[in-house]
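TICKET: design request
STATUS: open
ATTACHED STRUCTURE:
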């Protein structure tokens, strides 16, 4: 079989044409057309496989056994619905210089043989492990699959090398070891692969951000006294799904006295005049995710609320201005205030408030930027990384706070912000 993902043909650089950063990054819409070059999904699949194979070659592993749905999608370009995300019901195997195998949930395997022509049909199999222990290990499903995988490793000539596993049920780890495999951390290998995005991934991330741009305009219009946080969440969900989102992962909606400390959730609290309110929209388009905060005031704002917003914006802008290839994450983290400077006892308690994190098929990829980890374990920022930078500043009234987040694409010489709803100054919704 001639396969679009044949490992012998794969080099990442062959499938990532250099983007002209003098041009805007497209947000082309939800369809491909014959009169414009938009997202090239064949190129995307081939690039991702090349990255995964290169990361595997650079590791000690002979194969990667993947249970994380983001990793499965990265190497096989298969997805069966957002309900699978926490079920541990699918898995994939990638061996050196081999095409991937995927074990799917029942009839999904038949579907993928019919519709995923980039996969060898014989490599798409039905599988079942335990669905987070609901089928007990004593049933023998895990044992049978572990022995099946061991046999495939022998056929592939990599049985004497460690197997990198990203995450799995504890009982499955035991069965893999019983079947003779040396299990090591495979998640780091996959994160190596996924940290640099090609232009198709960047366009999908930009398209996802454009959908949130529009959602924030709706929120700006809807924020008025009497509206509940949950009402905004409902309207945002409706709008995002109508625009083509495949997963609205979460929407934080926090207002008034709930702003400080940040609870990372939403309630049925009614918005009131003068409230400061901030939102985070986490959703994906074609699997590629957003993490995108904006802060508003309802009707009017006090001096201390405006001051908190201004300081939050300054902390964010000084970090954005540092982003370029070769800069290390400790340099970025160092310009943010220490936890004690904004009311927290230590960096663990303040984690996630002055924060940077990669975006891709997962909400949190590389790099992670935080005073908690970056000062002692810095990472290099590289061209093609896409990540979010988010800052938080409590107001001196003791309960208001500002929270702003921008997503950036690292270019050859700096970075490009792709979250475009205006946030330079504090937006006042329905001003009095």
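STATUS: resolved
RESOLUTION: sequence designed for all positions
ATTACHED SEQUENCE:
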């Amino acid at each position: 079989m001639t396969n679009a993902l044949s490992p012998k043909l794969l080099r990442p650089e062959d499938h990532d044409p250099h983007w002209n950063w003098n041009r805007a990054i497209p947000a082309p819409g939800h369809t491909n057309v014959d009169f414009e070059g938009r997202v090239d999904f064949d190129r995307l699949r081939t690039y991702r496989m090349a990255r995964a194979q290169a990361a595997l070659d650079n590791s000690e592993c002979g194969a990667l056994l993947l249970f994380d749905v983001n990793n499965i999608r990265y190497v096989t370009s298969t997805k069966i619905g957002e309900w699978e995300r926490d079920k541990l019901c699918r898995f994939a195997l990638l061996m050196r210089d081999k095409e991937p195998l995927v074990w799917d949930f029942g009839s999904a395997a038949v579907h993928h043989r019919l519709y995923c022509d980039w996969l060898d049909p014989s490599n798409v199999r039905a599988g079942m492990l335990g669905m987070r222990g609901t089928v007990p290990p004593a049933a023998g499903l895990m044992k049978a699959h572990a022995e099946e995988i061991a046999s495939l490793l022998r056929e592939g000539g990599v049985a004497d090398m460690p197997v990198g596993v990203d995450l799995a049920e504890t009982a499955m780890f035991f069965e893999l070891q019983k079947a003779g495999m040396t299990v090591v951390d495979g998640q780091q290998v996959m994160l190596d692969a996924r940290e640099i995005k090609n232009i198709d991934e960047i366009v999908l991330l930009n398209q996802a951000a454009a959908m949130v741009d529009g959602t924030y305009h709706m929120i700006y219009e809807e924020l008025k006294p009497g509206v509940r946080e949950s009402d905004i969440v409902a309207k945002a969900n409706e709008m995002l799904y109508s625009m083509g989102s495949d997963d609205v992962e979460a929407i934080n909606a926090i207002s008034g006295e709930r702003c400080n400390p940040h609870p990372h959730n939403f309630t049925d609290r009614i918005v009131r005049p003068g409230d400061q309110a901030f939102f985070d929209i986490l959703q994906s388009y074609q699997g590629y995710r957003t993490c995108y905060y904006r802060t508003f005031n309802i009707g009017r704002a006090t001096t201390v609320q405006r001051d908190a917003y201004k300081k939050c914006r300054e902390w964010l802008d000084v970090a954005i201005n540092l982003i370029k290839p070769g800069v290390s994450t400790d340099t970025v983290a160092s310009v943010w205030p220490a936890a004690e400077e904004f009311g927290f006892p230590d960096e663990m308690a303040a984690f996630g408030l002055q924060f940077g994190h990669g975006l891709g098929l997962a909400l949190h990829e590389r790099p992670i930027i935080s005073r908690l980890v970056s000062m002692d374990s810095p990472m290099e920022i590289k061209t093609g990384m896409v990540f979010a930078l988010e800052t938080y500043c409590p107001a001196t009234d003791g309960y208001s706070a500002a929270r702003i987040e921008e997503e950036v694409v690292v270019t050859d010489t700096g970075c490009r912000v792709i979250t475009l709803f205006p946030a330079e100054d504090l937006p006042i919704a329905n001003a009095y």
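CLOSING REMARK: The chain has a mean pLDDT of 94. The chain has ten helices and 16 strands.
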